Request: fold
Amino acid sequence: MVRLCGAALGLFAFSITILLGLLAGNPANVVLLRALQAMLAFCLLGMCAGWVAYRILDEHALRKHREMFPAEGQAEQSAGVGPAGSEDKGKPPSAEGRQGVARAR
Reply:
């Protein structure tokens, strides 16, 4: 989206500058130089505008996702249960846990 906006605005500025320069009767080398300058400037401007639009859409999508699925992360945190397979397998079982199992037998 960023590059698309930059390219669209750059080419638009280039074509308008060429058209208006030739209609005004300016020499071709002056028209071409001004058109290239306009294309570069508007390409950068379009890329900035595209980046802003991308960030706005991204933030909107994240907010809508949080609104649609609010309990996805909160229910697991309040119950003390993590996602499947998230328990810490590197920790050895506690001594109390082993004694409790031995007494139950």
